[in-house]
Design goal:
This protein is an alpha+beta fold. It has a single domain, classed as Trna Endonuclease, Chain: A, domain 1, CATH 3.40.1350. The protein has helices at 3-23, 61-66, 70-84; strands spanning 28-34, 39-46, 49-57, 95-102, 108-111. This is UPF0102 protein HYN69_14950. It holds the Pfam family UPF0102. It comes from Paragemmobacter aquarius.
Length: 117
């Protein structure tokens, strides 16, 4: 996939995932939030808690999952910690890290609490 086509496919995948979370009552409060540690694709509110969502798009869900590296997870953790500094409960906020896999036809698979594995 060319760079710009890949970029726009990623944006479309993020839009689809944001819509899915919104329909489940968890509104996305930030998109492509950037801190000094890195970027978080989507952040959704779940009651008093937050869900940090990494969106991976590829031909298949398996290929999309292969694109998540330990280094990326570490950067997302760091950025999430920065984001939490602005929350009322700070680091004590309930959080979850999900990975949303989007395949070439737009099917979405959510891996809840994916970083715990």
């Amino acid at each position: 996939m060319s760079g710009s086509r890949s970029y726009y496919a990623g944006l479309a995948a993020e839009d689809q995932v944001a819509t899915l979370y919104g329909r489940s009552g968890r509104d996305v409060c930030a998109r492509r939030w950037r801190g000094s540690e890195g970027e978080i694709d989507l952040i959704a509110r779940d009651g008093d808690g937050l869900i940090f969502i990494e969106v991976k798009q590829s031909r298949t869900h398996a290929e999309a999952a292969e694109h998540l590296t330990r280094r990326q997870m570490d950067r997302i953790y760091g950025a999430a910690s920065e984001f939490l500094a602005g929350e009322p409960k700070g680091q004590l906020t309930d959080v979850r890290f999900d990975v949303a896999l989007v395949d070439a036809v737009g099917r979405i698979e959510i891996l809840e609490n994916a970083f715990a594995a």
